[in-house]
Amino acid sequence: MSDDSTSPPPPPPRAIGRKTMRPTLRPRELMTGEPDLAGVWTAQVITLLPQAFPGVLGESLTGRALKDGLWQLRTIDLRTFGLGPHRNVDDTPAGGGPGMVLRADVMASAIAEAGAGARGRMPLVYLTPRGRPFDQAAARRLAQGDGVTLICGRFEGLDQRVIDGFGIEEISLGDFVMTGGEIAAQAVLDAAVRLLPGVLGNAASTEEESFSAGLLEHPQYTRPPVWEGREIPPVLLSGNHAEIAKWRRAQAEQVTAERRPDLWARLKRE
Question: pLDDT of 108-118, one tens digit each?
Fold first, then answer.
């Protein structure tokens, strides 16, 4: 073909599969380059430590599910939206006091970026010690939606105005304080992702474990049948599934009553 050919150029290649493109408030060069998977459960994490992810979520069953496209993870670096030459994200508490508080305007910009990637039922959740306790029911609720956007707290917390302005849900892993919300975010995501279809492979695994019936899980045993003079309870080796189920229920009730009287009392009320 000669150099002066007038043949029209070939059409650009079309995207295939479930990849999608979404508008963003940030320049493309600031993004990770990871394509979105349309229709897949999506976790977005607003954090000052994006390098902390996927962390343990990239291992074992959750890591395999992430690689297989059963869910997807997107980190949003809060520092990107910081102000001034040092990209400050925090300031001193109004009224005085120790520490620093994450600024409402900076967080609002990050939330707007997250909103560009959100779809369907994706609650906006702030991880904080003062939030409502996170439990199995909350994990199940997240798994049944389209995903979640998590805000990892740092310093003395987040300006209340942005919490009120966006109607952010606050959750806590328990009555203790950590240096930030990144570990809590990974725990929340692990609890939700493992409930997604296809992640565990055996749906019965999630039906018989702790909290699924409002009880702590019964004791578990495996080979060898005798270890250090301690035997597996004979009923578990009997092959009588009705008796095994009865034994496990009784053991779960006993463990719950002894270790979590609050759960036991709630169960009795219901």
Answer: 999 999 999 99
**Cα distances (Å, whole numbers) of residue 168 to 5, 101, 123, 164, 184:** 60, 17, 8, 7, 16
Residues at the annotated binding site? Answer: 153, 173-178
Could you identify the residue written with the tokens 């049944």? 144
Which helix (DSSP H) or strand (DSSP E) does residue 250 occupy? Answer: helix 241-259
Q: Where are the domains of the chain?
A: 27-193, 208-269
Give the domain 27-193 fold.
Alpha/beta knot (3.40.1280)
- Model confidence, pTM: 0.83
Give the tens place of pLDDT for each residue, 23-66. 554 443 334 445 689 899 999 999 999 999 999 999 999 999 99
Annotated binding site for S-adenosyl-L-methionine: 153, 173-178
208-269 homologous superfamily: tRNA(m1g37)methyltransferase, domain 2 (1.10.1270.20)
